Amino acid sequence: MSSVQRGTLISDRARNALIESRLTPNMISMTGLVLNILAAVLVTQRYFVLAGVAFIVGSIMDTLDGRYSRMSGKGTPFGAFLDSTLDRIEEGLVLCTVAAYFSSRGMDFAVAATVFAVLMSLMVSYTRARAEALGVENKGGLATRPVRVVILSIGLVFAKGASIFDVDLLAPAIYVLAVLTVFTVFQRVLHVRKALSGAAA
Questions:
Q1: pLDDT of 120-176, one tens digit each?
Q2: Other CB atoms within 10 Å distance of the CB of residue 136
Q3: 74, 105, 184, 195: which could join 136 in a potential S-S bond, CB 3.0 to 4.6 Å?
Q4: What pTM did the predictor assign?
């Protein structure tokens, strides 16, 4: 047996053991929520690198729950609803603590940009949900959830005094997030308009 075959066999056994375990997609979703709450708490304490790590791992959990749901067959309609709901809560929670941090430093413009980024991030999700209710798939655009996670994670890890580099990327990350989410909302609105116009033609 080749090393590739052995690796595949071990991977299959691990996957089957995981599927047969009591682990559910909802447990993974709740783990992601706990990690994102931890990230928010760490932001309030100015432990930005640790907050970034917690946010990254928590967001990975948010990705894994859907994949595990499909792989294991343990997914339920409520689980999909819970996953989507928690994603919005987690992102908004961390961004709210970032806004509080900016407020404590008197950075009013950054506070406003953060609040705007929260609103537009919710609108990115809303435009997808509303489009799907109309029968139009609407997952595209620049600032999808993974992209937003990457941008915010970079901002947290490279916040002022948080990294070995003499940089502060938290505010710039928020500004980029605000701009890209607005652009993505317009992308999705135009996509739905085109799709519905084509269907009516």
A1: 999 999 999 999 999 999 988 999 999 999 999 999 999 876 655 678 899 999 999
A2: 18
A3: 195
A4: 0.84
26 vs 22: CA distance, rounded Å: 11
What span, in angstroms and rounded, lies between the C-alpha atoms of 27 and 136? 30
- Domains of the chain plus CATH, in order, are 23-200 (1.20.120.1760)
> Which whole-number Å values give the CA distances from 31 to 39, 63, 97, 148, in the listed order?
12, 12, 20, 20
Report how far residue 140's alpha carbon sits from residue 69's, in angstroms, rounded to the nearest whole number.
22
Tokens at 149, concatenated: 């996670």
Which is it for the CA torsion 141, 100, 35, 79, positive or negative? negative
Q: Tell me if 181 sits within 8 A of 117, measured CB to CB.
A: yes
Round to whole Å and give the CA distance between 20 and 129: 32
Specify the 3-state DSSP secondary structure of 31: helix
* Six-digit token string for 157: 């890890």
Give residue for tokens 């709901």: 85
Contact between 174 and 114 (Cβ < 8 Å): yes
Which residue intervals of 45-169 are DSSP H helices? 48-72, 77-104, 108-133, 145-157
Residue 59 CA to residue 66 CA, distance in Å, equals 12
Task: For residue 193, give the H/E element and its range.
Answer: helix 170-200
Return the residue matching tokens 């710039």: 172
Enzyme catalytic residues: 87
